[in-house]
Model the fold of this input.
Amino acid sequence: MSAPDGTSPDPEPGPEAGPEAGPDTGAEAGPEAAAEVGFAGQGVVVTGAGRGIGAAVARAFAAAGARVVVNDLDGDAARAVAADCGGTALPGDAASVDGIAALVDAARTVLAREGAELDVWCANAGVAPVGGADAPVAAWTAAWEVNVLAHVRAADLLLPRWLERGSGRFVATVSAAGLLTMLGSAPYAVTKHGALAFAEWLAATYRHRGLRVHALCPQGVRTAMLASTGAVGEALLAPTALEPAQVAATLLDALAADRFLVLPHPEVADYATARAGDPDRWLAGMNRLQRQLEQEGAL
Ligand SMILES: NC(=O)c1ccc[n+]([C@@H]2O[C@H](COP(=O)([O-])OP(=O)(O)OC[C@H]3O[C@@H](n4cnc5c(N)ncnc54)[C@H](O)[C@@H]3O)[C@@H](O)[C@H]2O)c1
Done:
């Protein structure tokens, strides 16, 4: 089975490409900015929020006073989370063209009734298919649809209003796999890189027009997705896995601090730096890990 997050064998920082690298760090937000951001009365949609990380994010926003719309393919699960946190359930597919359009429309209507706008979109729904180049086309397509195109389609519908009024917040649940890789799951690793690339592109393109973008990139989180990863997840992720509520709390802190990259496992920053600074060394380490997992029968 694949695991739902990125892994890295080599936590040593490389000599370059540290957090300062790049044309503009954009790190303008200080404590005062953090204090100014409040979520009371904000309209928030969380996709894939019937369980796991999405459910925790919905609960955290609700606890911060936001008006929350809880989406999931699983209607009963969405209704249970919504009832629990005082939100509104809008079950359905948050990836297809028609599903996203219906969700955006319905969410705007529901939030308007509560005197709110659609201020924050959390593109959280995700799938983690297994396999490599030989994975079925359907698995690649599902990963592409849910992990990447869902984000693109939502942004396409949300941007006109957000740019018109000069504010909006797009939260992409990516994964450390989007910064690193995921042994055992090429579709997951590739599409999570795509999700991160799209989030970066959005931030680079629209920051000056009031759009705020955040990419949530955890390693293991104790959810049904992690439980489904079997021996690989057990070996690579379980030891440092976090609870969904911890991840949600880190996310809300990062939003308040206006940070793009949200790393509930801070060591992922070192792994990413090592990968960027010495890709060959990093890849050699990843391949060592692959061979170890093969020997253990996990892959
Ligand atoms: N669990 C981890 O270790 C981990 C680590 C890093 C990133 N992530 C990412 O976090 C996100 C949430 O993962 P999770 O662990 O909570 O998973 P999960 O499988 O426990 O929950 C995902 C939810 O999304 C829903 N969903 C799937 N496709 C959907 C669609 N098209 N429309 C609406 N809902 C849909 C599912 O029904 C499910 O309730 C995913 O994007 C995942 O890739 C998870």
